[in-house]
TrEMBL record:
This is Phosphatidylcholine 1-acylhydrolase. It is a multi-pass membrane protein. The keyword Hydrolase applies. Its main location: membrane. It holds the Pfam family PLA1.
Amino acid sequence: MKFISIVIFTFISQFSFAQSIFGKDAIIEKSLSERWELDDEDKNGTFKLTFYKPIYVLPARWSSNPNELPQSENPDNSFTEAQNYDQVEAKFQLSLKTKLLQSFLFGHGDLWLGYTQLANWQVYNDPVSRPFRELNYEPEVIVNFPMKINLLGIDLRMAGFGFNHQSNGRDLPRSRSWNRLMFHAAFEKDNFQLYLKPWIRIESPDKDDNPAISDFIGRMEANFIYNLNKHSVNLIGKNSLDFDKNRGSLELNYFYSVKSNLRLHFQAFTGYGETLIDYNHKQTTLGIGVSFIDW
């Protein structure tokens, strides 16, 4: 009942306010070239902050199975006492990128710096003083090459590789982190875009906060984006690529534009690794809120 009440209040208040203040407007759609400055007419130089992944606030996020006893295959990173977590919390994400070098590597590549921060906040949990349950920090360096290759009627618009670090910046037993060498290719056709991102984990020679993380969160991500009028869908699938123990996750984001970059945002997640502390914990979550900008 608590989650339902929060959802109803959030949806009605945000939708009514947005419609009364802003009126009607179509969703802003950006091509891959506009997002990543692929074509000459879309290039904006270096050290200009732009948006990367979705920026959103979900005041109400419900979990079917809160991770009250986080565990790791490394016993030093395993909780011994259960935490009193609510099923309902808030979740928000901030994500930006900037170009460090333009048209390097014989004039064909761009070097980007990206940063994403994800927060899960037990804001309604007064008995434990409303803590941030998990904060994930994700800086990355990306080398990107613009392309124009037609493959079976779909355009391959860019490809590249990068170094990705993700951690929660906590001490034991909460500490979680990993490093990845990531590859990417992005395709585009009319109103849809598709990103494919396989990666190789870089093992730590000293210690491992989360052994077998690739067997749970996965070794590859597929990100599908589709825009239609005022509606936008973002589907993210991750998979371990292990046929014996096939694990991963699926996340659905639905956006409804109420004014340009202001959107109502519904999110559904199922599987492993919604956050790093949950890397080997399976749950289904539902969230509702707003997305602020076009990404």
